[in-house]
Specification:
- The protein has about 280 residues and is α/β, with parallel strands linked by helices.
- The chain is built from 13 helices and eight strands.
- Strands 1, 2, 3, 4, 5, 6, 7 and 8 form an eight-stranded mixed β-sheet that branches.
- The N and C termini lie far apart (about 50 Å).
Length: about 280
């Protein structure tokens, strides 16, 4: 099994319904292996004419997808091109959104940064009421979202709430995310699995052609142009060169970023105090 296959595992419930499990211990950080696994998955989806729906979930109940790997080990993934010619992260999200296959994010645990941008690229999002935390912490970390949050969130939540989420860089619980339109529904944790499974099996029972046609029509009136997404990814790349960004990222690692502990558990709470030790 390749490293990417280990971090993004496919479980074929039926020929029409697959589950995809993120499993990149300890925190499900989104590194190059996760993007490689998603690229492999999309290639399989493209050649599976019986497939109707894919549900994305996490093997870790506390972390759905933590955030992008800021260690530097995965930097090359932003420079490589996917089949569309776009950089791999943008290519992955655009192809997922435009795929004829329905994508559903079943969110249990923390999902922040590019993890949140991944679920925003999915067609539907359902969150655990007791055990889901969503965040776009980039501004508090000295950068800006580069994977579609600045383009997709305003279309779902409205301008004011999108700015609250992005500029405030705080953590949001499932109920608030539902109220804002970030997720379709927040459900009691004990009901989440059965609800999403029932919806996925319902979709899997329908013919593929009307699903594809209906999704394509909705996409035409609800998706940001690719050019806008490219503006965001370019701005993110530029922000990585800012000296103040380097200072904040270094402070995050000093506090325990990408390690199990309070920083990753309460990311949003730490951001206003990152530079306190240097004051």
């Amino acid at each position: 099994m390749t490293e990417s296959a280990a971090t993004v595992r496919i479980i074929e419930e039926t020929p029409a319904y697959w589950r995809v499990l993120f499993d990149n211990p300890p925190l499900n950080v989104v590194d190059h292996t996760v993007f490689e696994g998603l690229q492999d998955l999309l290639a399989r989806m493209d050649t599976s004419p019986t497939l109707r729906v894919v549900v994305f979930e996490s093997a870790n109940p506390d972390f759905y997808l933590a955030h992008f790997d800021m260690s530097g080990r995965s930097g090359s993934i932003g420079k490589a091109a996917g089949p569309s010619g776009l950089a791999v992260p943008t290519d992955t999200f655009v192809r997922l959104t435009k795929s004829p296959v329905v994508s559903i994010a079943k969110i249990r645990g923390r999902v922040r940064g590019v993890g949140s941008e991944f679920v925003l690229a999915c067609d539907m999002r359902f969150a655990s009421r007791e055990n889901a935390i969503l965040g776009q912490p980039e501004v508090g970390a000295g950068v800006i979202p580069g994977g579609g949050a600045t383009e997709r969130l305003p279309l779902l939540t409205g301008r004011g709430r999108a700015l609250e989420i992005i500029l405030g860089a705080d953590d949001f619980d499932g109920d608030t995310a539902e109220r804002y339109g970030w997720v379709n529904r927040a459900l009691p944790d004990s009901e989440l699995d059965d609800f999403v499974d029932a919806l996925a099996r319902r979709l899997a029972s329908f013919d593929r052609r009307p699903i594809e046609a209906a999704k394509n029509l909705v996409n035409q009136v609800s998706l940001p142009p690719v050019e806008r997404l490219l503006d965001g990814s370019s701005a993110f790349a530029a922000a990585l060169t800012w000296p103040e960004t380097h200072q904040r990222v270094a402070a995050l690692f000093k506090r325990g970023m990408q390690q199990e502990g309070d920083l990753e558990n309460r990311f949003g709470a730490h951001l206003p105090h990152l530079l306190d030790d240097q004051a």
